[in-house]
Amino acid sequence: GYRVSLQGNFFGRNHTYITFPEYNPCKHIKLDPPLNIQSNVTASKCQIWWSVPWYLVEILQYELQYKEYSTSWEVALNKTPPSSLPQIEIEATELRSGIAYIARVRCKVSENEDSYHSQWSEWSQTTVFQRAGVPKLSEKILNTRTMQFLFIPLSFGTLLYLFWNCKLSQKASPALTFPRQLLSFSHSIICTMGILR
């Protein structure tokens, strides 16, 4: 350990002030921030990892901050990795689709470590990531499915209309009129089905 004192001339007299009677550098460490922070996004999660000196890996703890790119750090969310490994995962459900995010990380000696003690490091450089947008049906597919859902009730309604129209018709040969209209309608149905396919 060390004894830290402050000496100076105050009001024309020399004074010595004891700042730390017993100063142990191992208990007052401030680490450099983690390096090389990177990210990778999949459909289910975002993986973020970084680098620290190999001899410190087992005694460090980390804090990750992430936020939407366009917002300030004051509203950032914090996450703590479950282990001392320099990595963390964010579930895709925690991210808004199509929005860019930015993250940073800092480190310090773990509270469980007896030999050393430190304050938080400065924040690392940042990494930017974005959850992929949810795939959407194209307009053509959407319109085709809509037409398919509407096709059956419309067809049934048209058949009923033709049937009652022919039945109530005052023409001389209703027996010939209905088959001709039905044949024409059937041809329209076949053409429509061909278009939908």
Automatic annotation (TrEMBL):
Matching Gene3D superfamilies: Immunoglobulins (2.60.40.10)
Fibronectin type-III domain location: 33-132
Membrane disposition: Single-pass type I membrane protein
UniProt keywords, alphabetically: Glycoprotein, Membrane, Receptor, Signal, Transmembrane, Transmembrane helix
Localization annotation: Membrane
GO biological process: immunoglobulin mediated immune response
Main location: membrane
Gene Ontology CC terms: external side of plasma membrane
Keyword Lipoprotein recorded: no
GO MF annotation terms: cytokine receptor activity
Protein name as catalogued: Interleukin-9 receptor
Organism, scientific name: Fulmarus glacialis
Phylogenetic placement of the source organism: Eukaryota, Metazoa, Chordata, Craniata, Vertebrata
